[in-house]
Amino acid sequence: MAAAMAGATRLSYNHNLTPEWARQEVSTGTTIMAVEFDGGVVMGADSRTTTGAYIANRVTDKLTQIHDQIFCCRSGSAADTQAIADAVTYQLGFHSIELDEAPLVQTAANLFKEMCYKYREELMAGIIVAGWDKRRGGQVYTVPMGGMMVRQPFSIGGSGSSYIYGFVDSSYKRGMSKEECLQFTANALSLAMERDGSSGGVVRLAAISESGVERRVILGNQLPKFASC
Amino acid sequence: MPLSSEPSWLNCEVSTGTTIMAVEFEGGVVIGSDSRVSAGQSVVNRVMNKLSRLHDNVYCALSGSAADAQAVADIVDYQLDLHSIAMGRLPLVRSAANMVKDISYKYKEELVAHLIVAGWDKRSGGQVFGTLGGLLIRHPFAVGGSGSTYIYGYVDATYRPGMSKEDCLQFTTNALSLAMGRDGSSGGVVYLVSITEKGTEEKVVLGNNLPQFFDE
């Protein structure tokens, strides 16, 4: 490309008046996570949104409510994930009114999957769907880029997740309590935020169970610290 | 459509996909690696020892292009031999790391290799040096290779200063196993070398003896 430009005659003034960062796509760099426990789920995310190297929002809420007891964690393009979440929220709301019942988490996950698979070439979205329903209790479904959907006991996603595969593989145990899951999630997210430039800020947590949704924020100075820092 | 009927891996560069790691403890170092060498999608060597001896008291771990890494290690092996004969004593770990760094920096554009240098000397005890991109930096522990991204969280959370040699061996084995479980370019067996004042001790942990972690 540089060679072609050098050969072309300068007929117009080529200076771009928009700064570099304003021309970058807004991305939720991110680390997201969700863990099942007996009776519900715990979901967590960092709070950084970047446009190139600029942090457009350092207190983003990446845990988006889809229905009363169903949430999703968003990673990838901020625009794409917001658009998909809005569409699914509408579809699920409509479905729930028709059924006259709370929707299943699997239904929400399926709606995400349908959209992410159909428009897979155009979209850049990695989503984790989690919540509680009467039929199966707490469930976590992951819908990564490409549009597959699978249920997992816990799931991690986003650019920062690469750094914590080893940590979660070694620390996860079946049958953890809600408090243990919250601690596990906070630890994993802190470690990822420490290593991934696109993740940072605060840790947002949500615990969903039969009784409802409980949201928490862990501020920067209260994050768990590790010896090697 | 490719005209050649030979398998694609014959045309791919041989790379030590890899996970390598070195940890310092009071009195020495532990250095470890996996054993997989891949050419594209094919595993061309499943038992390669990526821990290369630079001198009796200094080893290095190879990652990146297998050819580049081996070439650098061979050159430094030779240079250290001359150096230690001229000085009449064992080389310093820092000298070995410096030599690796000089080559990595001078040929930075041509080479695709990262060597972690670790060893023991009388002046400063156990030391681990990273030489990524041609810099020279001492760490209490270092990880490298494609598989290392997956274990940054684990090593950050688990490392504590003041571990014993056995703790370090277990820490390294665990970290390498976790990386091998997630990185397609790392696998096989775990090679470990511990270097102390008394000398070097080599160990292999075979596949069936590797620690098991959550697997889903």
Structural write-up:
Chain A: This is Proteasome subunit beta. Chain A: Belongs to the peptidase T1B family. Chain A: Keywords: Cytoplasm, Hydrolase, Nucleus, Protease, Proteasome, Threonine protease, Zymogen. Chain A: InterPro entries: Ntn_hydrolases_N (IPR029055), Pept_T1A_subB (IPR000243), Proteasome_bsu_CS (IPR016050), Proteasome_sua/b (IPR001353), Proteasome_suB-type (IPR023333). The complex is a heterodimer of chains A (229) and B (216). With 229 residues, chain A is α+β, with helices and mostly antiparallel strands. Chain A has one domain: 4-Layer Sandwich (Glutamine Phosphoribosylpyrophosphate, subunit 1, domain 1). In chain A, 29% of the residues lie in helices and 31% in strands. Chain A has five helices and 13 strands. In chain A, the strands form two sheets. In chain A, strands 1, 4, 5, 6, 7, 8, 9 and 10 form an eight-stranded antiparallel beta sheet that branches. In chain A, helix 2 crosses helix 3. Chain A is globular and about 60 Å long. Chain B contains four helices and 13 strands. In chain B, the strands form two sheets. In chain B, strands 1, 4, 5, 6, 7, 8, 9 and 10 form an eight-stranded antiparallel beta sheet that branches. Chain B has a five-stranded antiparallel beta sheet with strand order 11-2-3-12-13, with helices on one face. In chain B, helix 1 packs across helix 2. Classes of the chains: A alpha+beta (229), B alpha+beta (216). Chains A and B meet through helix 4 and helix 5 of A and helix 3 and helix 4 of B.
